[in-house]
Amino acid sequence: MALPVHLPTRQNCPMPTSAQPLAPPKLSAPQKALRKLGLVRDIDLALHLPLRYEDETRIVRLRDARHGDLVQVEAEVTHSEVSFRPRRQLLVTLFDGSDQCVLRFFNFYPSQQKQMAVGARLRVRGEVRGGLTGWTMMHPVVRAAGGDLPASLTPVYSTVAALPQAYLRKAVLAGLARADLSETIAQPCLDQVNQLASWGLRDALTFLHLPTPDVSLSQLEDRTHPAWHRLKAEELLAQQLSQFEARREREHLRAPPLVAARGGLHEKLLSVLPFGLTGAQRRVGEEIARDLSHVQPMHRLLQGDVGSGKTVVAALAAAIAIDAGWQCALMAPTEILAEQHFAKLAEWLSPLLQERGQRVAWLTGSQKKKARGEMLALIASGEAALIVGTHAVIQEQVSFFKLGLAVIDEQHRFGVQQRLDLRKKTAGSGGEAREPHLLMMSATPIPRTLAMSYYADLDVSTLDELPPGRTPVVTKLVAAHRRDEVIERIRSQITQGRQVYWVCPLIEESEALDLRNATETHDELAAALPGVAIGLLHSRMPTADKKQVMAKFTSGETLVLVSTTVIEVGVDVPNASLMVIEHAERFGLSQLHQLRGRVGRGSAASACILLYEAPEGGRLSESARARLKAMVETSDGFEIARRDLDIRGPGEFMGARQSGAALLRFADLTEDADLLAWAQQAAPLMLTRYPNLARLHIERWLGGKAEYLKA
Ligand code: ADP
Ligand code: MG
């Protein structure tokens, strides 16, 4: 007998080891689709949970079916015909020994007709309808009767066109089988939650992909089954671990300690301010001063409603940094806002800095090359102690002499990458690498549940008090057809020496249309209010023109400012007492709130008028109504934020922070508050006592995305 000889075949022939690189394997369409859905690693596949389930485990007798049930029956074809009334259709009658049912097909192939010939035994799955006139099913799934019934419910996954359900199902179950799902939660942590230990991750996932038919579907759907609990607990723990880890990593980083000296620059600044600080500003200022004095970099979010006076808090922090011999950079999302900061900070700080031979620098993308070069030199030499600008501040060419503190205004308008870039601007040159302290400011308060989860690695200071002398803004909803009354109101405000904003919505699809809109409104108001100086501010205007328009309004030369949402942030004109927002239903809630914050800054009674218009022939959408209602009912920024979260859900609320980051997919911060509290307790324990498990857990759940949660 011949011995088997192994001849080199295409399969087992060793790969050529020549220098020629191997072409990357070509991906099939479904493979590409998997990748697009982010289903790359085995664990990604295992965590791709079904949208719903179909029950193919049972054969139902027709007599026991109820109208509307999705059932599977086995029956024999007793009659088959193609009918032409009311239109061409195939009608197939089945009898399963208990009752009969007519299958109806409007589209069918000859092969199907053959499959369903009289006498054939079929297994049919579909929704039964009817009753009195007998059962019918439209376009059911049909195959030959017999064969094994599956032991579990059939999962149905969310997918895309290029990825057939059957392919995806196979891939997911294969991923589940291969994935490393060893226990990563330490026993003492498991023991703290009921049933957590008895449902391991593998058990939970296997169950959720292939539930046994006896399970209550409602428990699966409302996510209250213990398998769901396990999954949510895992997810929340991963999130908390990554946040706690970020915090611990920061503890190992070094920043220059910036200690506020007695009689130092910040005290001098306080003495030249035209007002005294509010209690909240004092408290927050102390929190920041304490952070700055530490050798760990500060990572603090200063949240305070529009008009709560965040700028002066930032100025005081800058003064401490400068006094300690370091530079401070302040970055704002738009040029107009940066300009306003520059004007204000220069007014307060320039005279004081001058005495020390220092100054405030201005940096923006639209700057002339020469001016920019001068600024860069000032920044590099350290003569510029405070640098104010747009994102130009973090560009590569900018090299600081000794950056000790970075302030980001309206932080949510910056991308994650920009914040990471800023942190990479190391403080000082040479010696050990040090990070600048980081102060982020936001007028959009973060609701508590979000703060506890997504922002757990941040320290948060809150300005919960407005400066004195503010008058509450009265908010009114006015239908668009009452525009004339609104114009009358503008007239009366102007007669009283007040100023008015009129905001037109930005039309995303068409900047040209958007400009026309604002221009038309401008002309309309000019015609209605002869002799009144009216400015027009539009996002497409050259920066220099924008500045001019803004300056005229600030000085009171123009009395009405028509603008697209460029005035959204930061603008400060205390004499303005009326804000009109056209098509208010198109704005987001926090945007409306920010716009409204532009008035009510002086002592005059102020109002905000929300002009709304339902789309032609329709009604305002549910969420538009909820937004307008919230605006009328409250002016409390925290309440607004809470309602905004309700209306939009955390995904959108988080804005830039979640881009590319792991948002919670399974847990719900409101419903799973208990599990969140558990995860917050468990995370530090895991990190100190079970660091290996913790690392595995983070890697499994977040993969490469953890970085984003730390920015
Ligand atoms: P925001 O928090 O929205 O950035 P700003 O810093 O622009 O608010 O402050 C709004 C206005 O209130 C500015 O004109 C500022 O000078 C003024 N302001 C800030 N703090 C006080 C205070 N303690 N007393 C009086 N006015 C203040
Ligand atoms: Mg501000």
From TrEMBL:
Entry-linked InterPro entries: ATP-dep_DNA_helicase_RecG, DEAD/DEAH_box_helicase_dom, Helicase_ATP-bd, Helicase_C-like, NA-bd_OB-fold, P-loop_NTPase, RecG/Mfd, RecG_dom3_C
Gene3D superfamilies reported for this sequence: Nucleic acid-binding proteins, P-loop containing nucleotide triphosphate hydrolases
Disordered: annotated span: 1-25
SMART domains noted in UniProt: DEXDc, HELICc
Superkingdom, taxonomy of origin: Bacteria
Location of the Helicase ATP-binding domain: 291-463
Matching SUPFAM superfamilies: Nucleic acid-binding proteins, P-loop containing nucleoside triphosphate hydrolases
All copies of domain Helicase C-terminal, residue ranges: 482-646
Catalytic activity field: Couples ATP hydrolysis with the unwinding of duplex DNA by translocating in the 3'-5' direction; ATP + H2O = ADP + phosphate + H(+)
Top EC class of this enzyme: isomerase
Pfam families: DEAD, Helicase_C, RecG_dom3_C, RecG_wedge
Comp. bias intervals (Polar residues): 9-20
Gene Ontology molecular function: any one: hydrolase activity
Alphabetically ordered keywords of this record: ATP-binding, DNA damage, DNA recombination, DNA repair, DNA-binding, Helicase, Hydrolase, Isomerase, Nucleotide-binding
EC number: 5.6.2.4
Function statement: Plays a critical role in recombination and DNA repair. Helps process Holliday junction intermediates to mature products by catalyzing branch migration. Has replication fork regression activity, unwinds stalled or blocked replication forks to make a HJ that can be resolved. Has a DNA unwinding activity characteristic of a DNA helicase with 3'-5' polarity.
Family note: Belongs to the helicase family. RecG subfamily.
Protein name: ATP-dependent DNA helicase RecG
Organism: Ottowia thiooxydans
